[in-house]
Amino acid sequence: MTILLSLSALWIVLNFFFFKFIHKYKIYLFVIAIVIGAISLTQEVNIINLGYVGLSFFLLVMFTGVVDKGRLKKSLIATRAEMAILGYIFIAVHGIKFLAFSLDFNFLFSGPLYFYLGIISLAIAAPLFFTSFMIIRKKMNGKTWKKLHKFSYLFYLAIGLHLILIQNDRLLFYVGIFGLYFVLKVWTFIDIKTKKIPVKKSAQTS
Fold it and tell me: What residues have CB less than 8 Å from 137, skipping those under 6 apart?
């Protein structure tokens, strides 16, 4: 829990002060992430192949959508696509590591539910990952892209259930963090819908 929150806080600080740099040199950051991820696959256990680094990026991406307006929101929005891509790279490393683990110990088809939810969450996020690259996004219809990326909520739900069903000592933390996100998201949605409702002028009495 401490590692996850510390990493998320670090990404927030870096985004706040260096969001222009992150956006400008994103390709180099992606390459570095892939190299680091590949190295972590060769190691037994670390915070990357255990999924903490990838999840820390996605917590940032999730809560960007429910943060109030301001400079912080601006810096997070500016690099949201980059954070999502980095998050998927590191989450994919976690998924590949545990898929290999399941093959080594022969439980690919007899694993716990949270194992398959993890695989499902990776599958859901795959098209979101590829269409987050601007070169691909520009070739898509805007409405189609937005509809596709609504599946991000399904991804958040799947990954949240994946973490909760593991039932380790971080259970309450995961329930709290994902519960808070969905409550804030519903609140934001209601607030937006309310503002769109036209206010009718009261009839004047003669």
Answer: 131, 145
